[in-house]
Request: fold
Amino acid sequence: MIDAAVLERHGLKPDEYDRIVTFMGREPNLTELGIFSVMWSEHCSYKSSRVHLRTLPTEGPQVLQGPGENAGAVDIGEGLAAVFKIESHNHPSFIEPYQGAATGVGGIIRDIFTMGARPIALLNSLRFGDLDAPGTRRLLEGVVAGIAGYGNSIGIPTVGGEIVFEPTYAGNPLVNVFCLGIAKASDIIKGVASGVGNAVYYVGAKTGRDGIHGATMASAEFDDKSAEKRPAVQVGDPFMEKLLLEACLEVMQTDALIGIQDMGAAGLTCSTTEMGSRGGAGVEIDVTLVPQRESGMTPYEIMLSESQERMLLVAKQGREAEVERIFEKWDLHASRIGHVTDDGMLRVKERGVVVAEIPNRALTDEAPVYRRPMSEPEYLREAQQLDLDTLGHSLQAGVRQDHNSTLLSLLGSPTIASKKWIYRQYDHMVRTNTINLPGLGAGVVRIKGTDRALAMSVDGNGRYCYLDPYRGAMLAVAEAARNVACSGARPLAATNCLNFGNPERPGIMWQFARAVEGIGAACRALDVPITGGNVSLYNETDGKAIYPTPTIGVVGLLERADRVVSRRFQESGDAIMLLGHGAGELGGSEYLKVMHDLVRGLPPALDLDAERALQALLVRLADERLMRSAHDCSDGGLAVTIAECAFESIGIGAEVSLEGVDVSRVVDVNIAAALFGESASRVVVSVVPAHVTAVLRHAAAANVPVRVIGQTGGSRLRLAVAGRIVIDQSVDDAERVWATAIDKHFAQRVA
Amino acid sequence: MKFGIVVFPGSNCDEDAFHAAKDVFGQDAEYLWHKDADLKGADVVILPGGFAHGDYLRTGAMARFSPIMAPVRAFAERGGPVLGICNGFQILLEAGLLPGAMLRNKGLKYRCEHIYLRVEQTDTPFSGAATVGQVLRIPIGHGEGNYFAPPDMLKQLEANRQVILRYTDPHGHVDDAWNPNGSVNAIAALCNGGRNVVGMMPHPERACEALLGGVDGCVIFDSIVRAFRSADSLALQR
Reply:
């Protein structure tokens, strides 16, 4: 019955099947095979990534819960914990953008409230092909509407995020969603099943045939048949999730629960197995007791369904009625579908007859772990070459570069331009905690009942990682932590979402391994341990992989919410200061991409000690109220950063002069590098003149290079390099280009 | 005074309204579960924002059948002050406590942002602390806030001075470019004939603390608190 074709349909390799038979001591039946196939899929088992993920730093005094649970948790003082995680929903979002993105939001929210935390903020990190490319607008509109439709309805604000447009993502967009919740540190709830005889309850939406093999789909590449997989994408119901959220949080107040877990990837299979495995117990259920949306469903279908908005929970004996009553209050019905056993088995019955019986250990600990072959990809050495002299000559052969128009081109590049068209579709103010609105830097939410606030940022740069995955991944950690520090918060911990191609190809596996090493190095140096996350592999379409794209989410703490800092200039006559070195490297920059259509060179160098010192300094300056604004230099370099500081403000311009730029040869390239280079560990701050001395003193003590580069004022952006004014632009004109660049692509439809 | 804040299963601004009433304005506040037909002695009722029952049908279409709506209606008919914010406004329309209906926003997209409003009338319990012509900067967050009323109804609303707030530019001028959802006559808030029931799409509870970027929403809460203080002092004089 089980032949090569059946195995292939289940995404299982022949040697994996042999392993199943050896462990079971018999041939599995089809239901059991289905259960193995989802639990051993890349998505659930992390079989290719596990050996690398083990090297990540996951501990620290601030960490209350590291990887392995539904989400990580850190101590934020006053007896509270921040519970957070990032997850991908790339494959479903490409097939059905609205529902793919919506259910991604639903899934990550469940991971957070499952831990006993009330979700209070969402972020997202999105990647699409060029905005002009066919299909991109449809995908973007669908994904944004899906995120909005779910998050807005359930009432959790989307307080920030990032979006990059790059051709590599045209056939494989990335949708990474981050959620953060708050719990009492002492009340964090785990996904465990224990206590023989305790009732196992199912609550939430009924089980349908949607999403069967979703986890397997997410573990395969795309081809021209992908659209046919639409039935494997689930449909979200945010109202059902809202009911579950409120009811579960209410049940958790009672201490009548042993454990709880959401049914995400691999549905009932994964939740029963993992809860049993964590509790060192077994779980026995009867599928006939599972509420079903469709008739005639087989045990195979019920076990593998990925219908959304379902939870599995184990109640304490004698407290069942209490649990049931709370769910009834919210018009939910908790169905008792089984009980906890002590034999370590996942046992599935249908009308009392056993239809599947597998040791939990076989599905979890015994899942294959691969140390896949790796080798440096061939493109790398060539792509890392960037000859600025040649670039300079090609520039000089043409017209002299007009840096004014370059600035406008960069401000109008969709990756840099204002994302207001997108974030105003998200309710970013519900719960009345948002104190740094989207677009102003890290998302910052105050914690009611305390003086505290949490800052959070998600960042990643696929282009950098393509050119050097180790350095690119370090830069992603550094940027996310730096954004958090710019808002005045001390970075506490991180979560990662690792989006890569097919790990069975040595070049991709090498990218993955190097990126994980980079994340580890940066997290250790900056003291932001990884508390959880998600790996998304097989991000390929027709054999072409995306840029390796690790996305890093960092959470930081502001002990006093009113110390929050945003990117905007506040007053005329303030000193503009640059913290960090101003080398101006062009490798992998948005400038090279937009102006020269080049993706090459080495990404900017990163000195982790300098980065750490810079971030500590920012937190100090914010705490002592010595800076009025702070903005990290990233895409588009210093010139774009200064322009952004002036935008959405009160129309204050800036006069800036950059010295120390070598203008003896390849002049234009060197000027472009000074203006648009993306050297790391640099922050532009504005400071009241009376505080300049104090800032200089603190910076010197922290060993952070600093200089005054200009002052705020006027209504123009005027930047001089080596004494010559190279940018002179009205703030209003520049802001219009930046503010309307994305809207313009959709304007014809609104009219 | 005591605020009663109705909680439908899909309400999501209930805690925000509660926080504003209790923590910012120091008043009593209590949640009123939609399945209970009891206002628990509330002096003012708020129907908060959210998606009362998921709103997959029409926003607020099911909420009007909730048990709590019977005492809310009776309270309103006795002249009790009722404020519907966002979804609460939509529910008041569906329940027939306010005239007109909501359409999807022009542009068909959800919009969350700060907008400008001009105060039109101050003789309601929720606008008494404002001055006519005052411009407020308050956030909105909705996908269906495009208020519609047929021409004769609209004429009557205007003649009865039932329009309380209008969308305007930052200087208080009505301008289509500053109307975020396409509402007819730029209507952002309106009251019933008795002037005690007010529905508004903007979220005043999101603009009551400087930390959140603005305090223009305070005037709505100040109005109701002040209305009760003067009612109390009148009662004392008697």
